[in-house]
Write a structure and sequence with these properties.
With about 425 residues, the chain is α/β, with parallel strands linked by helices. It folds into 4 domains: about 70 residues, no CATH class; about 55 residues; about 60 residues, no CATH class; about 160 residues, Nucleotidyltransferase, domain 5 (2-Layer Sandwich), CATH 3.30.420.10. It is built from 19 helices and 7 strands. The strands form 2 sheets. It has a 5-stranded mixed β-sheet with strand order 5-4-3-6-7. It has a two-stranded antiparallel sheet with strand order 1-2. Helix 2 packs across helix 4 and helix 6 crosses helix 7. The longest helix has 21 residues. The relative contact order is 0.07.
Length: about 425
């Protein structure tokens, strides 16, 4: 009697047992290879245990043998015969051997090569001075000195490690420092919101964080972060806090306003005291008017020694008599030692300079026509003031209290020409 065969479905293995069986199979294969006298090396597969758990690795001797056979033009079956490993392991070894080497990066002739770094390393071991090593290489001593310093000094310098570090630094694009360091980015954004220029921020960071090299950034990096958004870490809207408020970088320049006329009894700038030219003594001022929309203007006074600024609002008119009266009222608020001279351009608003001199005791000296550089401090300050008083604004709407606040903020900003001191600090020091 024939037995009736009953088809049964294969039993499914639980996940917990499947991993144990796979691991046991790998262990048996590994032990078998060791029993054959083969030095088998294994590593965990990146895909996990679902693809076998462990991946076979060839020894150095086996890789060399495969390279020899490939050089002879041996077929794949011969490789498997000579090296009794799995076809996957041999295939990986063949691909690694036949993979083309990485191309040597294009180095500038200004950069050190690996051979030059090897020469530096040998010179250090021999006890040669860095200047002697540089002479042999035909390089500047400072180039060799910086190379050794940035790579561990004379005791820790290694040519290969230094070359790998140089190649890493050559890679582009790089992560911007303001992206990498959130603390530095927060400080830069805060100072930009207070209308500091990038150069002021970069120089202030050195003074404020002398022992923290991470808190360093150049002004050019700040500009790039603002204007080149693909490399930037700063918000685009921070550009409105810059002096010119441009949304894109462009060449700067001041337009000349040629509104001078005939002024009687002028004193030329060449008659000004010599102490005003070298800025050694405080009390010599430069002045001008800045314009906006409408008829309102603002008179600016800048002290040559300290770059201290005062602002006088003229909301209704800027005729000669009104300008002379308002300037005299403002400048007489100062102590006598700060009222020595005033330099102005040949604009008609100072036609009543004689009345101003009688009221204030300050003589007025006039620049040559079309020579704004003779009042350089005032021209520079007027450019800074455009950050607060743009040309398209109505200056007549500004109160004197607002102008005093703007002057106080400008006098509290550090200046490069003052050794990164503020105008207020420079003027206080000069009064001692």
């Amino acid at each position: 009697m024939n037995e009736k065969r009953v088809a049964t479905a294969p039993l499914s293995m639980p996940e917990s047992l499947r991993g144990a069986v796979t691991t046991d199979r790998n262990r048996r294969t590994h032990n078998a290879l060791w029993a054959q006298g083969m030095k088998a090396t294994w590593r965990l597969d990146r895909a996990g245990s679902d693809r076998g758990g462990l991946v076979e690795r060839l020894s150095t001797r086996e890789k060399e043998r495969i390279a020899e056979l490939l050089g002879e033009g041996a077929p794949f079956w011969r490789l498997r015969q000579e090296v009794p490993r799995s076809r996957h392991a041999i295939r990986r070894a063949v691909m690694a051997i036949q993979r083309p080497p990485k191309p040597e990066p294009n180095r500038s002739r200004l950069r050190l090569s690996l051979a030059e770094r090897e020469e530096i390393s040998r010179g250090i071991v021999s006890g040669d001075s860095l200047r002697l090593i540089a002479r042999r290489l035909g390089r500047s001593p400072s180039t060799v000195s910086r190379e050794v310093t940035r790579n561990g000094g004379c005791r820790g310098y290694r040519a290969c490690r230094a070359d790998r570090s140089a190649l890493r630094n050559m890679r582009r694009p790089k992560v911007a420092k303001l992206v990498r360091c959130g603390r530095l980015r927060a400080v830069v954004e805060d100072k930009l919101e207070h209308c500091w220029s990038p150069q002021q921020i970069a120089s202030w960071l050195v003074e404020a964080f002398p022992d923290d090299p991470e808190m360093r950034v150049s002004h050019e990096t700040i500009y790039l972060s603002l204007f080149v958004q693909t490399r930037g870490a700063l918000r685009k809207e921070l550009t409105r806090h810059l002096r010119l408020r441009h949304s894109a970088r462009r060449p700067g320049g001041n337009r000349l306003r040629n509104g001078q006329g005939h002024i009687p009894a002028m004193l030329n700038i060449r008659e000004r005291p010599a102490e005003a030219d070298d800025r050694a003594v405080p009390g010599h001022w430069e002045g001008d008017l800045i314009f906006g929309q409408g008829k309102g203007v603002v008179a600016t006074l800048v002290e040559r020694h300290s770059r201290f600024v005062m602002l006088i609002g003229l909301p209704t008119t800027h005729t000669a008599d009104v300008v002379a009266e308002e300037l005299a009222a403002k400048i007489t608020e100062l102590p006598a030692q700060l009222r020595r001279s005033l330099t102005w351009d040949q604009g008609r608003e100072m036609a009543q300079h004689a009345a101003f001199t009688i009221a204030s005791g300050v003589p007025v000296y006039f620049c040559d026509p079309r020579s704004p550089w003779q009042r350089g401090s005032n021209e520079n300050t007027n450019g800074l003031l455009r950050q607060y008083l743009p040309r398209n604004s109505r200056l007549a709407d500004r109160t004197q209290a607002e102008l005093d606040h703007i002057a106080a903020e400008l006098n509290g900003r550090p200046r490069q020409t003052l050794g990164w001191k503020t105008p207020s600090q420079a003027l206080d020091r000069a009064m001692l």
